[in-house]
Specification:
By secondary structure, the chain is α+β, with helices and mostly antiparallel strands. Helix content is 44%, strand content 13%. The protein is built from 14 helices and nine strands. The strands form two sheets. A six-stranded antiparallel beta sheet has the order 7-6-5-4-8-9, with helices on one face. It has a three-stranded mixed beta sheet with strand order 1-2-3, with no helix packed on it.
C-alpha cells in the first residue's frame, strides 16, 4: 500500500504492484492512504509523501482530512504528568509528520491544534523537536503562530505558559522578541518568569543562546570592517528588503553575501574571508547572470528565507567539523535570523533546501560560495 501511495503521489509511470498499470489511471488516493504514508516509520517514505501532497494539486483535499487526523491524534490520551502527556512512538510520528505537512501547506487552521498538542512528548526530556512532535511544525509557522500562542497563554496554567514562552523565544524574530518581552512584563508567577530565562529545563538553552549571540556579534564585526552596518540595527523603508548569508565562523573562514533591494534598485555584495581580502575583493559587487528579477523570484520561490531554525528541525547526523550557515532577513522593520550548524550532514528536508539554494545562488552570481564535501 505504501509503495502504491508513493507511486501515485509522485506521478511515477508504473504501479509497482501491477506491472504495466499506469499511475495516472489509478483511482485517487483516499485520506486514509495519505495518512498511512505519513505514518510510515521509514522517514524517506513519509518525506516523499509529504513532498507529493504539498506540491500535487490533485491532493488539495488533503488539508481537511489531515486537520481531522491531527485533531484526532492530539486528543487521544497519553500518560499525563504535571505538564506533559507521554505518547507512543507511533503517535509521535503521526503528530510530527502530519503537522509538518500541514505547516508546509501553510494551513493556519492547524496552529491551534498544534498548540493544544504541544504538551505531547515521547519522553520527559527538554523541549526540542526530537521529543515534542508539535514543536517543529509550530516553529515552521514562525510569526504566523504568535497570535494563537498569545491567546492560549492568557488562559493557560503555569506549566503551559512556561512552554509557550519557550516556543516564542525559539522563533528568533523581532516580532517574537517584542511579544516575549510583553509576556515577561505581564507575568506575575516567579516560577514562570524564571522558566522564560531558559530555553529548556536543564539550562542548555541559555548557553546555546549565548553562543548564537556570539555568532551574530562576529558577523556584525566582520561586516563593519568593510563598512557594512549591522542588519540587526539597520532601519529599512517599508518596501525595502535585505538578505544576508554568512558561512563560517573564524579567521580566514567567515564569508558573506548581501543582497539588497530599495526603491526598485537591487545590489549584491560579496565579503570574502579576511585572508583573501584585497583592495579589489574586500567588497565585491555582484550581478546575477540572468538579471535581478529572476534572481529575486528564484530566491523567494526556493523557500530558503522562510526556513525555521535548525533547532526546529532536528535529524542531525554525527558529523566532523562543518561550516555553519547563518541567514539574516529584514523586511522594513521586521527582522529575523536562523542558524544551521551542519546542513550538509542533516537528514532534514529544510537543511537540504538550504544547501541546494546556496549552491544555486553561488552558480547564479559566479561564486563558489558553498559546497558539501
Amino acid at each position: 500500500m505504501i509503495a502504491l501511495a508513493i507511486s501515485v503521489l509522485t506521478g511515477c509511470n508504473e504501479n509497482p504492484t501491477t506491472k504495466g498499470h499506469q499511475a495516472s489511471n489509478a483511482d485517487p488516493l483516499t485520506c486514509d492512504q495519505i495518512v498511512l504514508g505519513l505514518e510510515d516509520v521509514d522517514n524517506s517514505v513519509s518525506e516523499q509523501v509529504q513532498n507529493a501532497v504539498v506540491t500535487n494539486s490533485q491532493y488539495a483535499f488533503a488539508e481537511s482530512c489531515l486537520l481531522a487526523k491531527l485533531r484526532e491524534v492530539c486528543t487521544e490520551g497519553g500518560m499525563v504528568s504535571a505538564d506533559t502527556a507521554v505518547i507512543s512512538e507511533r503517535d509521535f510520528i503521526r503528530i510530527r509528520n502530519t503537522g509538518q505537512t500541514l505547516s508546509r501547506m501553510n494551513s493556519s487552521g492547524s496552529i491551534p491544534i498544534l498548540i493544544d498538542c504541544s504538551d505531547r512528548t515521547r519522553g520527559p526530556k527538554h523541549l526540542s523537536p526530537d521529543y515534542f512532535p508539535a514543536l517543529a511544525p509550530l516553529l515552521r509557522f514562525g510569526d504566523a503562530a504568535i497570535p494563537d500562542l498569545l491567546e492560549t497563554y492568557q488562559r493557560a496554567n503555569p506549566p503551559t505558559r512556561c512552554r509557550i514562552g519557550k516556543i516564542v523565544r525559539m522563533m528568533k524574530s523581532s516580532k517574537a522578541s517584542d511579544n516575549l518581552k510583553k509576556l515577561l512584563d505581564g507575568e506575575k508567577d516567579p516560577n514562570v518568569r524564571r522558566c522564560f530565562a531558559k530555553s529548556n529545563s536543564n539550562g542548555e538553552g541559555a548557553a546555546a543562546d549565548e553562543d548564537e549571540e556570539v555568532l551574530l556579534d562576529e558577523v556584525d564585526r566582520f561586516a563593519e570592517t568593510a563598512g557594512v552596518k549591522s542588519l540587526r540595527k539597520k532601519t529599512l523603508a517599508t518596501d525595502s528588503r535585505e538578505d544576508r548569508i554568512w558561512v563560517g565562523f573564524g579567521p580566514g573562514i567567515t564569508r558573506g553575501l548581501i543582497f539588497e533591494k530599495a526603491a526598485g534598485r537591487s545590489k549584491g555584495i560579496y565579503l570574502p574571508p579576511t585572508g583573501e581580502e584585497s583592495s579589489k575583493t574586500r567588497l565585491q559587487d555582484l550581478a546575477p547572470k540572468d538579471g535581478w528579477s529572476k534572481f529575486w523570484f528564484e530566491l523567494d520561490s526556493s523557500g530558503m528565507l522562510a526556513l525555521p531554525d535548525d533547532s526546529a528541525v532536528g535529524r542531525l547526523e554525527p558529523q566532523p567539523d562543518s561550516n555553519v550557515v547563518l541567514v539574516e532577513v529584514r523586511r522594513g522593520e521586521e527582522y529575523r535570523w536562523f542558524l544551521y550548524s551542519a546542513p550538509c550532514y542533516s537528514r532534514a528536508p529544510e537543511a537540504q533546501t538550504l544547501v541546494t539554494t546556496l549552491i544555486g545562488v553561488g552558480q547564479t552570481i559566479g561564486l563558489d560560495f558553498y559546497r558539501c564535501y
